[in-house]
Hints:
By secondary structure, this protein is mainly beta. The protein has helices at residues 26-30, 135-142, 153-160, 172-175, and strands at 33-36, 41-47, 51-54, 57-64, 69-71, 76-88, 91-93, 96-104, 109-111, 114-115, 118-121, 126-128, 131-132. Strands 1, 2, 3, 4, 5, 6, 7, 8, 9, 10, 11, 12 and 13 form a 13-stranded parallel β-sheet that branches.
Amino acid sequence: MWKKNDMQYPQPEPHQPSVPVHNPSPVEQLRERAIIGSSIFIKGEISGEEDLVVQGQVEGRIELRQHNVTVGKNGRVKADIWGKIISVEGEVHGNIFGEEKIVIRSSGVLHGNITAPRVTLEDGSKFKGSIDMDSRQAAAAEKPAPAREVKPEGELLQKTQVEPPKVEPKRDDDLKKPGMAFKTSAPVSRS
C-alpha cells in the first residue's frame, strides 16, 4: 500500500531571525555631524550646518539652531547653547535654548537655565537653574536682543536726578491774612 519512501514530507525552511535589522534611511546616512574629541579645547563661537557632538571642552558660544547638539559624557562646556535638540550627558555651565527638545541624561550636569517646548530630566541627572517651556518665549529667547546704546554714567545721572521743589519760607504777614481761621485747642488748666 503506502510506502514511506513514496510520501513527501514538507521540508522546513531555514530559520529567519525575528529581530529586524535597522537599516538607516538615506537621510540618516547623509546627515553629517562634527565631533569635538576628548583632547580638543575650543574657546570662541561655534556655528555651522551639521549636528555636533562635544566630547572635549568648549568655552564661548554654540549656535546650531537647526541641528542637534550632544554634550557627551566626557564633554565640558562653559557656553550658551542654541540647537534643535540638545542632549547633555556631560557637564554644561550656561543657558541652553532648544528649538524642539532638551534632554539631560542621567550622567548629565547642567548649571544654567533651560528654554524649550519639551524638556526631559532623567533620573540621576543634576540640574540647577530654571525651566521655561513657553514656546513663544523660547522663540523670543533664541533671537539675540538688539544692542543698546550705553551712555556714560554721569550723563545718565544728570538726566535722572530729580531736583526738590523750591519752597519759599512763610512770612508772618501770610499767617495774618483775612479769611484764614486757625483752630486751636483750649489750654488745659491744672488745679
